[in-house]
Amino acid sequence: MLSKLLRASVLGAATMLTPALLATGAFAAASDYRFEVVSARPAGPHKTDVTLRLVHVPDNKPVPDAVVFQTKADMAPAGMPTMTGAVAPQAAQQPGTYRFQVDTGMAGGWALTLAAKVQGEAETVHATVTFSAAQ
After folding, report:
1. For 117, phi and psi rounded to 5 degrees?
2. Helix boundaries (H) for the chain
3. What's the pTM?
4. Buried b (16+ CB within 10 A) or exposed e, 79-88
């Protein structure tokens, strides 16, 4: 009898807590985040400063302090995926923004591929954003 009451109590508590955890985003996933291009500006010969914003999609708020640990730039959008450029992180001006200097050897469409860890999230956020480089 006691075990039945205990089991009912545990199940009841779990049923009441589940909606609360879902509402607070406790089960957020990498797909709940998106990188957006804020700007892409020439930064000297064959270089482009690219500023991105990381957004938490459900509430559209910027996400500060993510750790971007992998970057790659190439001209896949222009049909030249083997044309690559080095990517160097730069200091960002606002929380939730991430700035990079990309060696863009020629004008045209470029893709910047990133992997980032958001504090408190288990999954890695993977994204590819496109931008246009002017020389």
Report:
1. -110, 130
2. 2-24
3. 0.78
4. eeeebbbebe
